[in-house]
Amino acid sequence: xxxxxxxxxxxxxxxxxxxxxxxxxxxxxxxxxxxxxxxxxxxxxxxxxxxxxxxxxxxxxxxxxxxxxxxxxxxxxxxxxxxxxxxxxxxxxxxxxxxxxxxxxxxxxxxxxxxxxxxxxxxxxxxxxxxxxxxxxxxxxxxxxx
Length: 146
Prior knowledge:
single chain, mainly alpha, 7 helices
């Protein structure tokens, strides 16, 4: 049994047990969690990418796995996943690296491309460099240069 299948079975089994306990506050929290990912001003795809970054920064491997799988279901590309994970690494710092490794392992098992192709890397650098020159005067804020 692979990592993803084991994760999915365990998550399903335990969620059923948690909800069977019929604790009102727990059930309400699960309901809020479900409502949070419904499309509103942000579409579901964007919300899942945000959740993926937050999960990586919080160093929750189960959360990262779940949101990676949801992102894949919603058609998020490998390049978009790598970019989102890069944001999580930048925000979270080096302590996130072990969780980033596990995220890439999940991506690999799910059939996502875990590593950028050389052309992707070169193209990405060129686009970022051009964007950096174009937006140099807009780079301010509470979180440093963007």
